[in-house]
Amino acid sequence: MKPFVPYSPWTRKAFNHYLSWNFKRNFENIYSMGLSNLHSIEMPLLFVSNHVSWWDGFFLFELQRRIRPKAKIYTVALEKTCSENPILPRMGVLPIQPGNPGSVKALLKHLRSLRAQTFPEELVVSFFPQGKIMPSFSSELGFQRGIEQVISALTPIMVIPVGIHIEPMTGKKPTAILSIDTPMPGSQLNQTKEIEGKVQEALSKIHQRLFINGELLSDSFERLSL
Question: Is 2 among the domain residues?
Answer without folding.
Answer: no
